[in-house]
Automatic annotation (TrEMBL):
Residues 508-521 have a biased composition (Basic and acidic residues). This is DNA helicase RecQ. Residues 508-528 are annotated as: Disordered. Residues 33-201 form the Helicase ATP-binding domain. Keywords: ATP-binding, DNA damage, DNA recombination, DNA repair, DNA-binding, Helicase, Hydrolase, Isomerase, Metal-binding, Nucleotide-binding, Zinc. It catalyses: Couples ATP hydrolysis with the unwinding of duplex DNA by translocating in the 3'-5' direction. It comes from the Bacteria. Its EC number is 5.6.2.4. One of its GO terms (molecular function) is helicase activity.
Length: 528
């Protein structure tokens, strides 16, 4: 460190008071700021709403020169610059949305030392003119926002981020601070390697968001379940509803509006002006609901989002954590609600099977999905499981559905054997594969047309599973999938045995299952 810490901290504190109007630093902000002001590198893992921006904005103001912020969030740069300008901070941005004149003005300001912060889209660095420009000015620091975008294994990879390893080679004396809210240990390590942050100090905040109540319910009629939730617990609240497809985004937004809840759609297929308008309405108005694909929300700083609802299963725990993290930045009680069903698993498996990329990539996507399923089917505290995924430990939280209404766990070994042996018989006696629907019909002994057509009523397993209802069998299948005792593939979601299935069939392994608590069962039957 080149400056005595006392000076650094008092200057930083003054900037915090004078410019931002806050009394004190939060969490590790002060340590982080001191590190960067002193010329050191920092890698910051902090949940959404934790206060990452100040960690580079204050050092940029304290150090001489311009703080250069690399951010993939082009759509938000104008807002960020406006917000800083309102505080009297001199800020500008360079990205592809600007024309020549606008760009030149910012470049001029940069060169003449009239900027405190310059936001830069990563692809700008591919242009030689930009790097030459940076050479001609004085850089206080590089901030690499959304640093997980450098991770090829993660859920939000941006190829341009790989170039950021050059920053250190080209400007070795400029301190760098990389920040992200996505933080498995694997991503963490990858960021450090790929950004060449060998001597960086690591700051890992707790990822717990205690004011968010996590709830995961079995999906039966998702729109009605959602409406029920909004009417009973979130009337008049602002919130985000995530759907996987544009089509279901549109349908859900219309459905809510028709039922008296003001909702607007947001997805990549909309005209960019409509998208910008819906986004800014969401930020400015009270109590608006945005129904969106995951394209919405990265970097959105709206403190009073009271709920985040998922009508489809997110593809990974990291994605789920990030999306739900947009709720309750103001620290007030908020809800993260997810409805998921067997069809989600079938659909995502299909997407993985047909996705581009090599076998290793598909395996990785499969691992992400499995972790998400495990979170859905757990009988433990959701928060504990979520934090464990990020390598952090905690006590049962008392503020998630499994803590509030503990699900029973029951010995599902016999139903598991019945189901797996049905799949086995279809595969080995008949050389056939079927989806969940047909397998359940066989277990329940239903003589449907399809059962007659394939003479499935001749199978020895026909009708051996009448002790459970259709929906209960679906639960059994979901849980076998989550425990990798069963697999699903293809367009029709056909069921297959896995390597581990034999252990259950051979009675060498017991299978514990989760029984949905009464509360969930009641609310889903009320809404159907
Ligand atoms: P992140 O980027 O980590 O999601 P932000 O930097 O947007 O979080 O900060 C979240 C909110 O907390 C913002 O409204 C910000 O102004 C506020 N904030 C950050 N640090 C402090 C602090 N030390 N005191 C009070 N408010 C703060
Ligand atoms: Zn809990």
């Amino acid at each position: 460190t080149s400056q005595p810490l006392d000076d650094t901290s008092s200057e930083a504190l003054q900037v915090l008071h004078r410019v931002f109007g806050y009394d004190s630093f939060r969490g590790e902000q002060q340590d982080i700021i001191e590190t960067v002001v002193g010329g050191g590198d920092a890698l910051v893992l902090m949940p959404t709403g934790g206060g990452k921006s100040l960690c580079y904005q204050i050092p940029a103001l304290v150090r001489s020169g311009v703080g250069v912020v690399i951010s993939p969030l082009i759509a938000l740069m104008q807002d960020q610059v406006d917000a800083l300008t309102a505080l009297g901070v001199r800020a500008g941005f360079l990205n592809s949305t600007q024309d020549y004149e606008q760009r030149r003005e910012v470049e001029q300001a940069f060169l003449s030392g009239d900027l405190d912060l310059l936001y830069l889209a990563p692809e700008r660095l591919r242009v030689e003119a930009t790097t030459r420009l940076l050479d001609q000015g004085k850089i206080a620091l590089f901030a690499i926002d959304e640093a997980h975008c450098v991770s090829q294994w993660g859920h939000d990879f941006r190829p341009d981020y790989l170039m950021l390893s050059q920053l250190h080679e080209r400007w070795p004396d400029v301190p760098r601070i990389a920040l992200t809210a996505t933080a498995t240990e694997a991503t963490h390590a990858e960021i450090a390697t790929r950004l060449n942050l060998k001597s960086a100090k690591h700051f890992v905040a707790s990822f717990d968001r205690p004011n968010i109540q996590y709830r995961i319910v079995p999906k039966d009629s998702p729109q009605k379940q959602l409406l029920d939730l909004l009417r009973t617990e979130h009337a008049g609240d602002a919130g985000i509803v995530y759907c996987l497809s544009r089509n279901s985004v549109e349908k859900t937004a219309t459905f809510l509006t028709q039922n008296g809840i003001e909702a607007v759609p947001y997805h990549a297929g909309l005209d960019s002006r409509v998208r910008a308008k819906n986004q800014s309405r969401f930020l400015r108005e009270d109590g608006l609901v945005v129904v969106a694909t995951i394209a919405f929300g990265m970097g959105i700083d709206k403190p009073d989002v009271r709920f985040v609802a998922h009508l489809d299963l997110p593809k990974s725990v990291e994605g789920y954590y990030q999306e739900t993290g947009r709720a309750g930045r103001d620290g007030l009680p908020s809800t993260a609600w997810l409805a998921y069903g067997l069809q989600d698993v079938v659909q995502q498996r299909k997407m993985i099977d047909t996705s581009e990329g090599d076998a290793a990539h598909r395996r990785r996507l499969g691992t992400h999905l499995d972790a998400m399923l495990a979170l859905c089917e757990t009988v433990q505290c959701r928060r504990q499981q979520l934090l464990a995924y990020f390598g952090q430990t905690g006590e049962p939280c008392g503020n998630c559905d499994t803590c509030l209404t503990p699900p029973e766990s029951w010995d599902g070994t016999i139903p598991a054997q019945k189901l797996l042996s049905t799949v086995y018989r279809l595969q080995h006696e008949r050389n056939q594969k079927f989806g969940a629907g047909q397998v359940i019909d066989i277990l329940l002994g239903k003589t449907t047309d399809k059962v007659k057509q394939f003479r499935h009523d001749d199978l020895t397993v026909f009708g051996i599973g009448t002790e459970l209802k259709d929906t209960e069998w679906r639960g059994v299948i979901r849980q076998l999938l989550a425990q990798r005792l069963l697999a699903v593939e293809g367009d029709y979601g056909t069921l297959l045995l896995t390597e581990d299935s034999a252990e259950v069939l051979g009675r060498r392994r017991d299978v514990m299952m989760r029984r949905e608590p009464e509360r969930a069962a009641r609310s889903s039957s009320r809404s159907s």
